[in-house]
Design a protein that fits this description.
The protein is mostly helical.
Length: about 220
């Protein structure tokens, strides 16, 4: 059964009406059971790919700040969990819940708007979030282990901001490139997700026609 989003006036009498939640569950089962994953790779792997891209950006910034503040192995695992793992997980969750449903259900008639949303979500969790959390995490460990002389955040907040700016300045170009790459990657993959949904629906419609004409056995699968 092909999944189509229609207005009430456009729904045929013999159509099966299901809720959005049921539609998403139905489509997820189709994706899981699709034999040739290369045809729908975008739907199957995009969240994981975007999560991996976020990890790369976060690891780069985290390692840079740790080296600058001479942290060595102090708090290495502890700093990676919030600064690297969390953005990757949150990016995956947000894309899955705030982008994929619109792609599958075609709720938004503006595909570019959905792609832009995907790009902004990826930009937030791959670059903006680490830019805020990585310095805080690194400064906390540097203060605790006395590896770098830091101004007091309570007495000299402006000096702290100046130090963050100073530390970020040498990697401004790298961070800008990572930001642009993540945004473009998310938009590109979201477009591929749209194409995969259209491909699935097209094949399902073709199967329905063949079933109705008796050209395809009932037990034939995708």
């Amino acid at each position: 059964m092909a999944l189509l989003h229609k207005n009430i006036s456009e729904i045929p009498k013999d159509a099966v009406r299901i809720s959005e939640k049921e539609a998403l569950e139905y489509f997820s089962k189709i994706i899981d059971g699709w034999k040739n994953k290369s045809e729908i790779w975008a739907l199957a792997y995009t969240p994981g790919i975007l999560s991996g891209a976020a990890v790369c950006s976060s690891v780069y910034m985290n390692n840079y700040f740790r080296n600058k503040l001479k942290l060595g192995n102090y708090g290495r695992l502890t700093s990676y969990l919030p600064a690297v793992a969390l953005p990757a997980i949150m990016g995956l969750v947000f894309h899955t819940h705030f982008v994929v449903p619109d792609v599958i259900l075609n709720r938004n008639k503006c595909p570019v708007c959905v792609q832009t949303r995907a790009g902004l979500i990826q930009a937030g969790f791959s670059t903006a979030y680490p830019m805020l959390l990585v310095p805080l995490s690194a400064f906390m460990f540097a203060t605790r282990h006395f590896t770098y002389r830091l101004p007091s955040a309570h007495k000299e907040p402006l000096e702290v901001l100046k130090l963050v700016q100073k530390l970020f300045k040498p990697i401004t170009m790298q961070v800008t490139v990572m930001l642009a790459f993540n945004v473009m990657l998310a938009m590109f993959l979201t477009n591929k997700e749209f194409e995969a949904v259209h491909r699935i629906n097209f094949k399902l419609i073709e199967m329905e026609k063949k079933l109705e004409s008796g050209e395809l056995p009932l037990n034939d699968s995708l």
